Amino acid sequence: MARPKMPPFTLATIKFCPHPTLHGMVQARSRYVDGHGKRQEVTASGKTEAAARRALAAKVNKARDEYQGGDEVLNQSTKLPRAAAIWLDSKERERHAEATMRAYRGYVQTSINEGVLSALTVAEANDVARIEAWLRGIADSRGETAARQSRKVLSGVLALAERTGAIPASVMPRAKTPGAKPGSVGDRHCTDPECDMDCGKRHLDTGRAFTAAEVGHVLGAAEAAKADVGDLAHFLFGTGARLSEALHCTAWSDVDLNGKTVRVRGTKTREADRVLPLSDDLVETLRRRGELHGTTGLVFGVTYFTSKLGQPRDRNNVGKAMRRVFATAGVPWAGTHTFRRTVASWMDESGASLAEIANQLGHADTNVTAGYLGRRVAPTRAAAVMVLPSDRRATLRAV
After folding, report:
1. 70 to each of 113, 166, 202, 304, how far by Cα in Å?
2. Do 92 and 144 belong together in one domain?
3. Model confidence over 32-41: pLDDT tens digits?
4. For 249-274, how does the pLDDT look when each residue is reduced to its tens digit (9 = 90+)?
5. Half-sphere exposure of residue 35: CA atoms within 13 angstroms, side-chain side
6. Model pTM score
7. Could you list the residue range(s) of the whole structural domain that residue 300 is in?
8. Domain boundary among 23, 42, 66
9. Alpha helices, DSSP H only, in the chain?
10. Is 143 a member of any domain?
11. How far apart are CA 124 and CA 161, in angstroms?
12. Closest among 243, 136, 237 to 181, alpha carbons compared
């Protein structure tokens, strides 16, 4: 196996020896790889080995700070907001969904352009301590989700800067995303066991599935809601699709009502693009929806405005409508992912295999499916299968 490549401006093994000309001084010698991938020898001296080590590290840090990379568009002196704009342009060229680009632009504006990193260059921002302090501030003021998404955006910006040579290497792999400080504005989790569920905090229980009675209450509340979420709730319950898949990856052209199937063109995993069977009730629900709103564009697209019929709906707005539905149905602990957990749990109780459940949910790994079902280890039949015939066991004992 090849030796892993040493990151730029990282000291290799340091060797110490008495200084050849300065009596009583210690000389430290090592090497590092510069921003152009070339190996450089470096020496420094001090009264002690620790002092010589510090002087050696200072020389390498200075070389890193003086490194001039990138081009006239993006280099180490480029301000972070400008680098973020260049990154957004590169993402638009990758033809992401408009909802994805809207989310990227929002986090660039609120976390980078208006944040504490806005006055820094990409080289100055590429610092673990600064990044983690920045993420802590976001988590405490806006929540852990905002911190995770902001980290994803900054990671993309610094990765682009690394590819163009503006910085030697991104430090994002070493930066940790902190949680919100308990009791802060960003701490959205309710910890009161006697809470009346009306405190404004989150009560999401990710390990719980709906009972049959709870499903009935939820579907009834969704059908009665002012927002167009009734048919969507039926679809989520009948297929176990992710909310984003139902809203943005399921088109009328992929629905076969006669064949009772729907193709969900998910993108989260390699198995997310899949064909799912439809129950008779769900077929009838979709048929009525098509007759009422037409079969143009997305199945659960915009219906209120005829000029935008079938176009993508905003996921955040739909999520808020569904949370109101859950509250009305008496299950404020639930989220849209609870439908997926319910499908997995009910299929498991009916005797379906992990592979079948994983195919239904679009999981690329059955271990993820096992986690949905609360299993630490997927059960196997090894104990029953790996048994020798009785006459073979007797022969082995005789030997």
Report:
1. 21, 4, 44, 48
2. yes
3. 888 767 888 9
4. 999 999 999 999 999 988 777 788 99
5. 24
6. 0.60
7. 212-372
8. 66
9. 49-66, 80-93, 98-107, 122-125, 128-142, 144-163, 212-224, 230-239, 243-248, 280-293, 315-328, 337-349, 354-361, 366-372, 382-385, 390-398
10. yes
11. 12
12. 136
